């Protein structure tokens, strides 16, 4: 049975950002205290009309999808800088971000006998996402002759709730993590330097990846989320050498990255020929890169 499926879509959006900043200097250069507040909001509505016409139809299949979503994000940040000398300073701060997301997806099937679209409760769904992140950091930087360094540490607590209301799938994830960083540079001579960097960071899965309800927009290619996804943790090492002769600069870099809990889309073909995809935490990955520029 051959068929043609067409889609007519419109996406009205509304968004705005509000920011407040305060900075106080204690009378000494770079001895500062700053406070920032940011509010970000967006509202998105996606309306799609699907028409599926088969090779010998009596009535074409018509569907209407209405996908409404809103996102509220509040961010509060306090930073303090204390210089000890021209090359030495201490920095610390705290940050809090609060995010609330609501998604309401409704599918309607057109009934030609009554000329009316009927809500399909089997594939319509409501999803709520709540994210609270609290972080604190500190760092110290200094120079001793031709040797420069900066060492830092960030601690972060996350409380994330994904609530698939339609199928009563409630999942909460809490984790406390440490993220050290180190930057070291040594100047052998003017325009001849070597630098070593290390950072650890995380990449959280998108809230859309955590919605466990299966999307039937395309009945032959289904998509679902996974509320049990873990964030990716990334350890990065970089060793670089910069050398300049006259107007020519040579930059050689060795880059190594180790990623834990890699998030990948996994696709599976079911017995009825329908393909379904969902994100999973796959094996860890390691990447090594050598770069030379001149």
What does this structure look like?
There is one protein chain. The chain has 294 residues and is mainly β. Helices cover 0% and strands 74% of the residues. Strands 1, 2, 3, 4, 5, 6, 7, 8, 9, 10, 12, 13 and 16 form a 13-stranded antiparallel sheet that branches. A 3-stranded mixed sheet has the order 11-15-14, with no helix packed on it.
Brief overview:
It is elongated, with a radius of gyration of 26 Å.
Keywords:
mainly beta, elongated, 3-stranded mixed β-sheet, 13-stranded antiparallel β-sheet, 294 residues
Topology, element by element:
Blueprint lengths: L2 E8 L2 E13 L6 E23 L6 E23 L5 E23 L4 E4 L5 E20 L2 E18 L4 E21 L2 E12 L17 E3 L8 E14 L2 E13 L2 E7 L5 E7 L3 E9 L1
Parallel strand pairs: 11-15
Antiparallel strand pairs: 1-3, 2-3, 3-4, 4-5, 5-6, 5-7, 7-8, 8-9, 9-10, 10-12, 12-13, 13-16, 14-15
Question: Can you count the helices?
Answer: 0
The radius of gyration computed from the alpha-carbon positions, rounded to a whole number of angstroms, is 26 Å
Secondary structure: number of strands:
16
Overall average residue pLDDT: 89
Structural class of the secondary elements? mainly beta
> What's the quaternary structure here?
single chain
End-to-end span in angstroms?
60 Å
The amount of beta strand, in percent, is over 45%
Give the overall shape, derived from the CA principal axes. Answer: elongated
